[in-house]
Amino acid sequence: MQKNTNIRLEQLLHGGDYNPEQWLDSPEILEKDLEFFLKANINVITVGMFSWSVLEPEDGKYQIDWLIEIVNKMYQNGIYTILGTPSGARPQWLAKSYPEVLRVNANRERQLFGARHNHCYTSLAYRKKVRDINMLLAKELGNHPGIILLHLSNEYGGDCHCPLCQAKFREWLKERYKTIEELNRRWNTTFWSHIYQDFEQVESPSPKGEMLLHALNLDWRRFVTAQTVDFAEWEKQAIRDGGCEKPITTNFMGDYDGLNYRKFKEVLDIASWDSYPEWHRKPEIQTARETAMQHDFMRSLLKKPFLLMESSPSSTNWQDVSKLRKPGILRAASLQAIAHGSDSALYFQMRQSKGASEKLHGAVIDHYGGEDTRVYQEVCQVGKALAELTELRGTKQNSKIALLYDTENRWALMDAQGPRNCGMPYKETADKMYAALRRQGVNVDVIDMEDVLKDYQIILIPMLYMFRAGIEKKIRAFVENGGTVIMTFWSGVVDDADSCFLGETPSKLTDVLGLRRTEIDGLYDEEENTAIPKKNNSLSLNKKYTCRNLCELVKVSDAEVLMTYEKDFYKGLPVLTCNQYGKGRIYYVCADMEEAFYTDLIEAVFEKEKIEKPFSFIPEGVEVTTRQSKEDSYLIVQNFNREAVALDFPKSNYEVIYGTQSEKLDSFSTVVLKKVK
Amino acid sequence: MQKNTNIRLEQLLHGGDYNPEQWLDSPEILEKDLEFFLKANINVITVGMFSWSVLEPEDGKYQIDWLIEIVNKMYQNGIYTILGTPSGARPQWLAKSYPEVLRVNANRERQLFGARHNHCYTSLAYRKKVRDINMLLAKELGNHPGIILLHLSNEYGGDCHCPLCQAKFREWLKERYKTIEELNRRWNTTFWSHIYQDFEQVESPSPKGEMLLHALNLDWRRFVTAQTVDFAEWEKQAIRDGGCEKPITTNFMGDYDGLNYRKFKEVLDIASWDSYPEWHRKPEIQTARETAMQHDFMRSLLKKPFLLMESSPSSTNWQDVSKLRKPGILRAASLQAIAHGSDSALYFQMRQSKGASEKLHGAVIDHYGGEDTRVYQEVCQVGKALAELTELRGTKQNSKIALLYDTENRWALMDAQGPRNCGMPYKETADKMYAALRRQGVNVDVIDMEDVLKDYQIILIPMLYMFRAGIEKKIRAFVENGGTVIMTFWSGVVDDADSCFLGETPSKLTDVLGLRRTEIDGLYDEEENTAIPKKNNSLSLNKKYTCRNLCELVKVSDAEVLMTYEKDFYKGLPVLTCNQYGKGRIYYVCADMEEAFYTDLIEAVFEKEKIEKPFSFIPEGVEVTTRQSKEDSYLIVQNFNREAVALDFPKSNYEVIYGTQSEKLDSFSTVVLKKVK
Amino acid sequence: MQKNTNIRLEQLLHGGDYNPEQWLDSPEILEKDLEFFLKANINVITVGMFSWSVLEPEDGKYQIDWLIEIVNKMYQNGIYTILGTPSGARPQWLAKSYPEVLRVNANRERQLFGARHNHCYTSLAYRKKVRDINMLLAKELGNHPGIILLHLSNEYGGDCHCPLCQAKFREWLKERYKTIEELNRRWNTTFWSHIYQDFEQVESPSPKGEMLLHALNLDWRRFVTAQTVDFAEWEKQAIRDGGCEKPITTNFMGDYDGLNYRKFKEVLDIASWDSYPEWHRKPEIQTARETAMQHDFMRSLLKKPFLLMESSPSSTNWQDVSKLRKPGILRAASLQAIAHGSDSALYFQMRQSKGASEKLHGAVIDHYGGEDTRVYQEVCQVGKALAELTELRGTKQNSKIALLYDTENRWALMDAQGPRNCGMPYKETADKMYAALRRQGVNVDVIDMEDVLKDYQIILIPMLYMFRAGIEKKIRAFVENGGTVIMTFWSGVVDDADSCFLGETPSKLTDVLGLRRTEIDGLYDEEENTAIPKKNNSLSLNKKYTCRNLCELVKVSDAEVLMTYEKDFYKGLPVLTCNQYGKGRIYYVCADMEEAFYTDLIEAVFEKEKIEKPFSFIPEGVEVTTRQSKEDSYLIVQNFNREAVALDFPKSNYEVIYGTQSEKLDSFSTVVLKKVK
């Protein structure tokens, strides 16, 4: 049987999570649901995710007919099914019969039954029960023509500190370091007399034990990812062993740093994620950009279209404030996913639960249950839009620009103790760089240190505290061969065991950069400095910008200094430098700069490097992306302002395939253009 | 023996908590205390509450003579005694000999000995020891002519998660739901695969287990109340079995939501509570109103005079800031209790402890120990006032207005997850409504969903999220028969298992209201909207008011729209409606309005419904109430402003029985008038 | 062998913590270190502190040659060694083999291996292992001519609640109170029925048990100090039993209230501490004064020169913000220690660790490893300065002024519950008084209630809530004999078991003060009052000052009233009084006053009492101290302003021995003058 890693369905997916098992005693409800689905162009539902206690009400006693019936009925009505495995929430009996499946927290307390996403990933008892039910689902439904995708568990996350996990962790360390001496050396355990004599002495980090050995913390996080990937692999194998070769995904969370999602690449055929932005908390364009970065991260994982697996059709119930989405936002957000490479706009949830913790979460069909709701009407609009945009399905998103944002670096950076324990602006710096790139209207890949750099023209590298995976060599080669890099302060400080490099830093790149770091100053929250441009600098920068939080002091050997500090004892020292190395150029930003700095810097660098942009001028608040197939090229334009804005659409070469092209682009509206061949 | 549910004492009680066991080795102190009491018109003391380790220094070895001696001595001096049972704090030996009496917290940790109010209510060992000592006290002192009231324990509260309580909880659930299937159905356990197969699988809520199953949380709180009531009943039975038939009370806490105090109705002969307002933190009138609402709640419990059981004669020691009360506040606060139906003004405490956690709590007699203290002098003034007002004792407080403020609704509402997790304004809305009512100078009952509605003219119903106890039927009948209701947003959402009603909401009242809810918008803290009046609305409202936090969107079928939103996408939708139903009218407030809105609305409704008021105009900051006996009617007027205010006292028909009636009412002063027959 | 309690080295010490065991596999690094040391005038290193797992890699298997080699090599190069005992961090094997050495926290949870400073002080197993290694170190190195000082453990602190400690605590209590009846009496356990029948029932304070019995809390803190002192004594005895009679110290922490450092007097030959001020967070002079108070406290412990044992040569890594020190601050801070009686300026650390929690902490030699760092250059400047100031070594610091700041009082005061639980300004009041004193340029001793008072002229006593150790008698005698006291509000409230005094307070001093306390008012954070001067008051005070937080009300019998409250119901009551008693005077400050009040009060009192000052006028921001030997007298002047200030140096009688005396004193610069004989 040949494995197909893509969904065999020539539509953009529209639908979402559906829990018919909550309504089995109300067939009239299920009947009504189908009507709603059909009217709203729903073509896919996701089932099974929290159905374990209905699928297997007693240990070994399965009850799957109801699910087959749903899948059949949907299929007969042209609706496809994404089949979830139920491991995200176990039945009561499973916890009672096999207590080892219950997680132990960092304080070494075994949890009680409750909530969800809280099983031990190592427990063989759990793995066995998961394997059994996954195989059964695969066998009974895996080859059903209505099933288009298998969905592993739900939002994998968290860690377990039980004895089984401790033992596995020690094995993993042994595999990594071979000898305890090597572990001691890499972890620098001589500090505070922590030398291990034996792998058996290693314990996972704990507030009642060790929390300050950074390499232990880092390796524990790596192990948790590895063990979770192993669990996902196990789930997948059960599906394959059950005879199902359909593509497999799991739903990731936005900006989640509990796991290094990059490590799931091998397990997944398709990447997917759950997007729950807090619309209307900040200006909509800011929320849109933060969401876009997540979309781009998910697309960059497998470098192909991903799925928006969950999103709320109205408000969530678990954010501080359940804010209603203003009219038009649902469609704008759904089409933004498509604009960034998604082949779907799916919801959590199709019908609201009656009780328990998410009963007030938004849904396509609410407790009221009528069609005359604003939410349902907007869902219908999305359904219509997706149908009109069918040809976008499967198209790619080419990018010559990459932002390097690395999860392992994030772990180490945030854990480092110093130079600012009250806030290290890693995410913030990446966000500012990303926003600056988006203002240029170019597609952006979000990559990590393990990725190949050579295919890009420009790479932005915020705060790369840790150098691993040969990144310093890759950066050197990239620049040498003509690439452009913008790198910032606090890069190249530690190796992959979070151990400081001796000698000049950013380690092994000081000749490429034409400078070395001497000190780094932490600023109190209320402090700031200013960067002022040097006369006749090579980028013609001519404004002042504020710096906060961190100001690095460097000693320049070869680089051009473009901007300098305005005050403090390091007045006159460089804030921005540029060094020509080989055929390329590398910029170094010494301080935590305000967003306007990055916007102007990137605009100037784009001009210098002659980067192509879809529009010569994009008004603030407007988002532009492109998607490409072998034959066609599409331009997607969205206005995230609360007012209409004027925009110079291309006069020729493009035809409108969605929305209305006029002199003004309406608030929260989308226009899709196709290049005329 | 005939049970007397009232205190046989024709005085307003003055006195309070007294711990002579702390001074048994200083007879001169006890002698001095008596002198102080007599000079201050103290006529009652409360003893025994924390005396267990003196009363029973060793398991089964009692030592009660000292207590009898105190009671005798007081009685001989005309001072009566309230006899407390000592269950609020157990002796050390009891915890050592019977470890099961120590509570287990939600994290399943057995507590050590310490503090107080922390015994397991289920433990038979504890119950047995409590029964023994209560019976002994009843036998030895219960029929002493000096004893006028039995006082159970102290400030019942908290919960215990020990195995004994878990077992009892399961029994309680079985009693409630009969079958596990029914529990699953009502709790909606299919969500997140939580189906129970057996009552044995149920565990109380725990941060290390389940916290998100709302129906479980709600039933746990109900069970805790039930078990506490059962414990109180057990204590009472021991007293009765000891041969004492005197009235029984227990001291409640202000605005405490750990227990549903309504469920104690059957146990108590007299309601009483401990009032500790933070005077001078807010404007005094605001503190006075918040306190008044608690008084009214306590009075409404048994619909008869209650007791102010504790209050501080000066500052407390456990609030953030131990603020001194300004001169006159002690008397004003004491008489405010009387004004709202109390037959007492009692203090914690008569004499300050020398050491331990409350050593710095205010007392009638302080460590200094002289009579020349400001506090003692003010206590004497209160004593004098109470003596002058003796005839108020036992008089009732008739009210045609009720505020429905329901503890179970509060539990469900605060636990609901959505639409605002950072603050649901239930208490705040009730407070604003109550303040608006108090500005009219009318008496107010504070009732819950189990109360009878039909005797009122107007009922105010803030945020009645949960409908239970047939409240929707009672409201319908009340309006139909000519009553007036003011109901707010977020009413009628869930049933008594916290499960959402399907169909139109407020459930089963949409025809009465002439509208249905469509959506509810959560506002961020910094956001607001405005309600603007419709021209020629039937209440002639003509001002604008601010709304915050929550804005409900409704679809009107029949109701009159009186005010609308000024902005956002729901601009023009109703904020205030009124519907005529049967002979009555029901108003619906869609948003969380500022206090001025309720003040103006209620003034307008009072005018429309021709509600009688004692004064045509009451200056801001002045409190007015009435008390009535079969023969007489009293008008109590208090000025809570820091300045004197002008007030038009009735020119005839009334005589002054306390205070001075002049053109101005002094700051913090009280005048009591009696209707001339 | 005669014990020498002073270091036999005629230099001011310069150097610090050094961990060569982290670099044993890099001899080139160790070689380089020595070069660095010599160039920077480093004359001492501290070793051994966290070396246990290298010194004893397996239970009973020692490996000490590397350490001897380091000491030898240093000695051969003129560098001396402070030898630390390694008890601050145990090896992994020790925790595994003897689990009783792991602390149990207040929640009764045994900790896992990890971090440091976390051994049970009671465990005999731990004591035995510590004794063995200390004896070995003493034997092998104790008489090495390069070893000048023994350094016990590192920053003793924390507590352990294990069964061994509980048993020891009970023994300690039995020793203190003899009978359980006496304990009950002193602790006032009748309150809340807490009477103990037996010492066996006593448990240490716990959040899951008792936290509110103040006398228990207080005695637990005393016990923890006693047990820690006992442990230090045990460590010392092992050194002595190992044949080493050299002086002994341990490094204290700044403003640490976990231990009563005064109780270590008998154990230590030399006091030392670790100074980590947050430079540049507040105005530098404020940081300097707060640091100076710690220096003075350490000097006052043994009334002789102390050591600055640790300080960061640049930023720390564990404060919120790792702020760089501005140029000059390192030298100013180092010389400030000297100015206040230190005979050293030592650093943590000589070379930065590569990994683990303190890898980013500042060091003399950083990861870069070159000499051309700003930090190293400034360290060299310090080395040079210390060499020039060699003659200051061993000189004393005479003081006629004392500030009484008592740790046990602090414990009781902060634990008291009332009158302000959201902040009692003990430290703040002491800081304000100290700053006022420093503005006068006089030396100040920081003493406690156990100290002798009679040698001082003026004693400042902030908030002496607890009276113990006969302090009321000592104060009476001191004033009677002509001394001047400035005492504040909230003094003389409780005895040494935290039990309130009955009768007039401040207890047994009301006749000396000429007043008694009546009440104390807590102010909310946003409230304030004002003190206004009485006309013709004896100090000629003529300004208004703000009071906050606490306003005490007193009734004057004999005292002169100098200032009164401006508002509230206690308007006109005294804020400042003065009473002549015997030959002396005692001032009483009734409210928490702003710093300017203390500055003006102390200036006026100094004038009245004719206190000698080194300068008639000291500009704000300039620090002045004096040191004296039998023959010579030195005047040290430091400018902590960011700008140069004009200063009138003495025109004659003094010669400059360090720095430059000109009309202006440069920012962060120091001048040392020597009296010409």
From TrEMBL, chains A, B, C:
GO MF term (any one): beta-galactosidase activity
Active site: 155 (proton donor), 310 (nucleophile)
EC number: 3.2.1.23
Domain annotation Beta-galactosidase C-terminal: ranges: 621-673
Every Glycoside hydrolase family 42 N-terminal domain range: 17-388
Catalytic activity as recorded in UniProt: Hydrolysis of terminal non-reducing beta-D-galactose residues in beta-D-galactosides
GO cellular component: beta-galactosidase complex
Family listed: Belongs to the glycosyl hydrolase 42 family.
Full protein name: Beta-galactosidase
Species this chain originates from: Candidatus Galacturonatibacter soehngenii
